[in-house]
Amino acid sequence: MQLVTANNLGYSINEKRLFHNLTFSLNSGCGLHIKGGNGSGKSTLLRIILELTSPSKGRVDYCKPNLQVSYLGHKNAIKHYLTPMQNLELIFKSSALPEAIKWMHTLGLNKVQDELTANLSFGQQKKLALIRIFASQSDLIILDEPFVGLDNTSRDLLNEFLQKKLASDSSLILTSHIEPNVLCSELVLTDNADD
Amino acid sequence: MINFFFLEAFKLRHKLRSWLGPLLIMILVLIAFPLSIDVSQYDLNKFYFSVIVVSLLMISFLATESIFSEDYEDGSLEQLYLEEKDFYKIVLAKILTYVFFIGIPMAIIGSVFSFANGVSVTEVPKIFVILSISTLILFNVFAFGSALSINKGSMLGVLASLPLALPAIVLLGRGVRTVQYGGGFFEVSALMAGVALIVMAIMPIIISATLKTHLE
Amino acid sequence: MLTSFIHRFSSPKSFVEVTTRLFPYVMFLGFSCLALGWVWGLAFAPEDAIQGNSYRIIFLHVPASIMAQLIYFFMSICALMHLVWRVKLAAYLIKSAAPVGVMITFIALFSGSIWGIPTWGTWWQWDARITSTLILFIMYLGIITLHSSFSNAEKADRLMSILVVVGVVNIPIIKKSVDWWSTLHQPASISISDGASIDPSMLYPLTISIFGMALTMIALGILVSKLYILNREKNKKWVQAHV
Questions:
Q1: What digits encode the pLDDT tens for the residues C21-58?
Q2: Which CATH number is A12's domain given?
Q3: Which residues on B lie below 8 Å from C162 (Cβ)?
Q4: How confident is the model at residue A102 (pLDDT cuts 50, 70, 90)?
Q5: Does any domain span residue A184?
Q6: In this structure, what DSSP letter does residue C186 have?
Q7: Alpha-carbon distance B135 to B55, whole Å?
Q8: Which SS3 state, helix, strand or coil, does residue A32 take?
Q9: Does residue A158 lie within any of the structural domains?
């Protein structure tokens, strides 16, 4: 079933065109890997799909009502003045908290669960941020450079998780300079890309 | 919305400097004023209110300086927007949390200090009422300034929102005058309450539109 | 239908073409009316019974004060058009009108201070009308500063429009301040509801000065907005052809 469709998407900023005439669709259980050089508009395209940013032209339609979307961008959306455990209490409702705590153990963050997040390494903070994705029950996962900062074990864990989600009919859109180990169609953004 | 209120309260509880800092500065300013004038202090009770009003203005600005910028910078604002498309509910919850944890204590501190400077104990509840309503208005106005200048520094926020806060100060001054010299307290406080209700209804919507513009 | 009408007549290209043609006439008419109003008021209008000749600054102060408020009101209409219908030209006009508004508000405050010396014995008084006009001056500065702080021009336009719309609450406060509060400042000399409170021999040059000031401000606005539009749209073919 079709989940997301984009028709003739275009985006300009300060009269400079980033991309135009982008048309694509995403079905359930499918992945889309958006590729492109630095500044080609990958993150902007993700934000347009999320309806955080309005496109200059075209539109994005969600075909499934009440679509559950989980997103992790460049920013981790975690509070540095809280501990990992407190961050999870902030992010998750009490019903979803046990699942989140389980992932915290899986990712090895239980050893630092009572330390201030500001004192954690970049990779540890990234893993904490990824728990938002791991523990959510979403139909569509959108990730912007999710592999940055992760060690090999965590990278494999994330790949495995994404494969499982695709197999269970969830969909995935991601940007990554590191090639993911999941089956995805590719969308390449170049300068004045047409599709 | 209640859920967002509790989440904001949870965050604020762990950010001691954000809520305790403004209150301590207010206490310092209110203590410093009598020390800075002549020791005879005969007319302290007449113009002490000006200090309370001005310190309320300054501290309201200080308290709301990072109400949105922290969430914007660490990406939490995007996540909140994805979670709740009626963004004004989040804004309203944030402002109400700040009013409850910082604004109301500010009003209490102002009332206590006014009592310490000659206001009779029967008038103190009146002072508390008008200061509380004022913090509600001022927090909304300065939250708007913070939202406009979210990552551009606090000076821009002051420049944008202070002209809107000054009419609120005029009203507050009018309210203070009714307590000092009697007459018309109910009318002025009803007017202030009406203004506060209008501001509470409109400002969160305007602020959420402003934040949405920043997220784009 | 309304939306298509607005979009048809709000193209920056049409605006520049139309205003380029109109500018010389507006400027000439504005200067002429100002000159007529000021010469009449300064040289031929009779002395005031109480203030003597010091009242003659009214022919600068009142037009400037009216323009200060009207320009902001114009900006607020443009802001609504930009926010609701996403009209780019409206945002360009707000950005262009703001410096004109700052200038004329400063003239109003300065001329009022000069008038205050012989009438009130003071340069400044913290009364409602003067203070709210000072607030308007600061608001203009805030709008200009806000827009200049953002490198993303579209975002800056939108935020500026939001600020202008919120700040319009100050205009009725300025207008009605002399009625709502007992202030040092005199009530309005000309009122739509109550008519004029000054003699016709002073009223006519005052009205002509107001009209002349309005046209001069429009001419100034046209100059500033044309420059700004050409700069913002510099990558468009019509600008390159025009320049």
A1: 999 999 999 999 999 999 999 888 888 878 788 888 99
A2: 3.40.50.300
A3: 148, 206, 209-210, 213
A4: very high
A5: yes
A6: P
A7: 11
A8: strand
A9: no
